[in-house]
UniProtKB/TrEMBL annotation:
Keyword vocabulary terms for this entry: Methyltransferase, RNA-binding, S-adenosyl-L-methionine, Transferase
Organism: Sphingobium cloacae
Entry-linked PANTHER family: NOP2 YEAST -RELATED NOL1/NOP2/FMU SUN DOMAIN-CONTAINING, RIBOSOMAL RNA SMALL SUBUNIT METHYLTRANSFERASE B-RELATED
Protein's name according to its UniProt entry: RNA methyltransferase
Keyword RNA-binding: yes
Family membership noted in the UniProt record: Belongs to the class I-like SAM-binding methyltransferase superfamily. RsmB/NOP family.
Amino acid sequence: MTPSARVQAAIELLDAVIASARDGGPAADTLIARYFKERRYAGSRDRRAVRDHVYDAIRRAADRPESGRAAMLGLACEHPEIAHLFDGSAHGPAPVQPGEAAAAPGIIPGWIVPLLAGPVEQDALLGRAPVDLRVNRLKAAVEQVVPLLPDAAPIPGVPDALRLPEGAPVEKSGLWQQGLVEVQDAGSQLIAAVCEAKPGQTVMDLCAGAGGKTLALAAAMQGEGVLIAADTIRSRLGRLSPRAERAGATFIQTLLLDQGHEARALESLHGRADVVLVDAPCSGTGTWRRNPEARWRLTQARLDRLVQEQARILDFAAPLLASGGALVYATCALTDREGRDQVESFLQRHDGWIADTFALPLGRAHGPGWLLTPGHDGTDGFTFARLRRRP
Ligand SMILES: C[S@@+](CC[C@H](N)C(=O)[O-])C[C@H]1O[C@@H](n2cnc3c(N)ncnc32)[C@H](O)[C@@H]1O
């Protein structure tokens, strides 16, 4: 592909990303993979260059641009070498017309800025994310894995975590294929650690998705006890089984919940859990550095719906706890509505519940819970709290 054809390909992909963000379709990574599956003529250098254009244009625009061309023209405003490629050549983009619209630069959509938790360092939200690994204690000890990964550095305070540079191809390594390591942000690892799950306990991961944190809980439980991974989306839970097999965590039970009817399905488990993790659906504000186009998906109405859903999930989670058990609420969001305020309103609705105080190696106290941010902690952004009934 010529350099101009790469820019045109990025424009087409950005059109697809913009439409997908507007209509709730697949993520940019999925769209890019599909695009190149149908265009086998593109070599690996072409694919990398197009992908870089797409992500540079996404990162640069806080708000959803009107078109892929406007997004790329915005990038061209700061990169004359890209502007020159709007040359009308075969397979390349048409020359720029006088007064043509270019996407405005920005990091955070204006309406979200006042909603972010005060301490969040906004400039770091779109930084480059490293690749964090969790050594799977069901299969290996950190000391065994470290000599096999010369580029990996330990992450102080997160005992099973190792950090590799951005883009390290972990999933091609034998260590990953044999289940000795999992890719997991250090912040997610800390949340699983805060659950303090122990062998022999009954632990429920209520919003398990494909089981990232479930697998960390399984390792903490050393494969002993009852670990239930629940979610409302069958395909997500389906992705957990091969991962659990690879990790040697075959004791995990899955539970598919019916959206809106969860409380009834969970009734038989009331009062049984030592730990319930609610890793709630959220705005994903803390993971923008990995999914920068998530900024183009979020709307005020969607945020309102998420806040309501988080409260509803917390309310049907609370009765599951046995006496002395811990309800851990977490989101990868950095808005106070989804974090601090959500926990405070839970404590107001549920008489006799308290939030534990923490002394953790990463992060800061924020309201009744804890805050991790890319700028302060080098992790994805999270808010979490550990709640219990007062003894
Ligand atoms: C942040 S994701 C979970 C990520 C996962 N815990 C991990 O570490 O990989 C939130 C999950 O909540 C699920 N969810 C949404 N509404 C739910 C509900 N009412 N009950 C249970 N799970 C729900 C979503 O399908 C999604 O998989």
